[in-house]
Each structure stands twice: as structure tokens, then as C-alpha cells.
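Sorry, I am new here, but would you mind making up a protein's amino acid sequence and the C-alpha cells describing how it folds?
***
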Amino acid sequence: MLGDTIYRLRKEKGLSQTQLGEAVGVSNKAVSKWETSEANPDIALLPPLAKTLGVTIDELLTGLKAPMSAQRTFFGMPGTVTETPERYEFVSDKKTGKGLPHVHVHVGKTISTMNAKARGLVAIGNNAKGIVGIGLVSTGVVSIGLVSMGFLAIGVFTLALISIGAIAFGGLALGAIAVGVMAMGAIAVGFVSLGAVSIGYFAHTVPGGHAWGRHVFYIWGNNP
């Protein structure tokens, strides 16, 4: 692995084995042995070797490209961006008294980083938690995601005081399947419910629908 990495980086730099050897104080034969894995560089040579090849020591030893960080803005907010082929992350410079970023974006691009966590006042990521959370799995006062939980939640599967989703649970639930104190959906279950199939103490449905409850009402039709 190390030999392959040295060979690749040397070629990318356009250096010959002799030039690389001269830069770090060894012969071209020593470089050749490194690249064919017949021998490894002395540990004292790793810093100058990494510097000559333009990488960190970690990248030299692992063959993995180190994350590149840069100062950028996200919707006008300055912060630090770190991006690799596996993930993208933005952390705002502005933070709360407890060190929580005002904006944290952390998106994993591969299976190994699909649980990328974002934590901030505004959090956007695969796994997001904040006052406003947006992600595959999100938690926040306002939460938007595939699976979301919060005061107001919007997503495929939602749990919140006000819940909007394909499957919604909450105080006020709106969804294809809705369960809540007040529920509205194709299938609605709640104290007050409205749906094609409706179950509740006060159950409302439309003509041709089905309702079960202590008080049943047919919207745009005659009450039974």
C-alpha cells in the first residue's frame, strides 16, 4: 500500500525516482525498493517525503486523500467547509455560548457516511438535530425529513405536536395514515378524525367513506 502510494504521488508530481531520492536524501535505488514494497522508508524520512509529495503523513501512510477545508459562505453565513468524495460538511463560524454552530450542514455521500450527524441551531444532514432540523432523520422544533420528530414535523414518517406526513402521529396529524388528537387522512384515527376511513369520538367521513365513533358525521352528505 505505501509503495503504491509513493509511486502514484511521485508520478502525479512528475518526479523521477532520482529527483525524489535527492529531495529526501536517499538514492534512487532506495526509492525503487519503496515502490516495489521491498523496503519501507525510515520513519524519520516520512515528514520530508510527505512534504515533497505534497500530502500529509496520514495520506502518505493510508493512501486516502485528506479532507480539504476552506473558508466559504452558506447563504451569506461565513464558515468552514470540509469536502471529500465521501462527505460534505459546513460549520458556521458563528456559534452559541455552548459552542453549537448556528448552521451545521453534514451530508454523507456513501454508505459508510450515511449516518453523518449535523448539530446546530439550523441543522441539515443525514442525521440532523437542531431548532430547525432538515435531513433523512431529523429532530427539531421544526423538523423536515424522511423520518422527523419535533413541534412541527414534515416528512414520510412524522411524530410531532403538528405532524404532516405519509404516516403522521401527533396532536394535529395530517397524512395518508394519520393518528392524533385531531387526525385528517385517507385513514384517520383520533379524538376528532376526518378520512375515507375514520375512527374517533367525533368521526367525520365523506359519502362512500367509512366512519366509526361515538358521533359520526358525513361531510357533504346527510348525517345518519
